[in-house]
Specification:
The structure is a homodimer. Chain A is mainly alpha-helical. Chain A has a single domain, classed as Winged helix-like DNA-binding domain superfamily/Winged helix DNA-binding domain (Arc Repressor Mutant, subunit A, Orthogonal Bundle). In chain A, about 35% of the residues are buried. Chain A binds a DNA duplex (30 and 30 nucleotides) through helix 3.
DNA sequence: CTATAAGATTCATTTAAAATGCATCTTATG
DNA sequence: CATAAGATGCATTTTAAATGAATCTTATAG
């Protein structure tokens, strides 16, 4: 049960931008250097985020990346849903390719769906402003429920 | 966001056993045939389940696999937690190997932990008897919340 | 109008994890 | 002792993800 590094980097890139002072512009190279990660990979991450409408990119000298909306208007659930490639927890989630013979009278699928919705519901409660710790909704994040337990 | 096929097969194997009439014994080959999957892979799945105490295996002629406990006493959350290899949603979940520089003042981790706990909490509500649709707690499963939505 | 700094796009390669296959060992029954 | 079962270890294949490299497009400065 993992998210791809692609999704991880998408979130990190957004957090990086969210924390910049006005006008909130940074280049891909700058962010790749900061995180010491492959610039090539980050280029694709930036592209995907731009295509999904989370960031705006400007080419040419003086260009770079900026949030397309204020951080408090970017939901974390939305980002994950649009970035994570494969949300099929198990084979039977994808009807066209399913091979499992239990499909008709098995409640595992319904249960896993419910669990996945619970997962996404939590992410939907928070925004990029929360993740970047910008103060908006920050009081929510100091509640016990937001403290990392050992699973 | 996927579970491994290994986990998927673990659950399917348990459901298969849960549905057998007394004494609930089946061979690995029988289950592999039924699901038309690699017997080799299923051998390892069966092994893992036996090591975790979910099933009992008996060697030799007339041997096979059986549930080690009644289906209603096997929690789905427990199975997933013990079967899924890697529960680190993102890099920073694993402190020793973490490289992310945001770690100190980023609430993404706390949020993802909360989401993961919400996910597991749902699975913890249900047992193998529910998944196998054996009637126990079945009324719970017909509630709207258990109906598969589109994420 | 050219040099340069940026992102966009495409294709190829590498890596790592998962899945699969094969051979051999152990155990139990008739 | 033959056979049917699971157990174990090693090798191979497959797949998705990650990474790398080359080229294209766009914008700005001088």
């Amino acid at each position: 049960m993992q998210l791809t590094q692609f999704t991880d980097l998408s979130l990190r890139l957004l957090i990086y931008l969210a924390r910049l002072p006005e006008p909130g512009l940074a280049t891909i190279s700058e962010i790749a250097d900061y995180h010491q990660i492959s610039r090539n990979h980050l280029v694709k991450v930036a592209n995907s985020l731009a295509n999904q409408g989370f960031i705006m990119s400007t080419r040419g000298k003086g260009g770079g990346l900026q949030l397309a909306r204020p951080a408090y208007a970017i939901g974390l659930g939305e980002v994950v849903r649009r970035t994570e490639q494969n949300m099929n927890l198990v084979e039977c989630f994808d009807i066209p390719s399913n091979q499992c013979r239990l499909i008709r009278n098995c409640f595992l699928k319904a249960t896993l769906y419910e669990a996945q919705r619970a997962f996404m519901s939590v992410l939907d409660k928070y925004t990029l402003a929360d993740a970047a710790n910008l103060g908006v909704n920050a009081e929510l994040l100091s509640l016990p429920t937001a403290t990392p337990p050992l699973t």
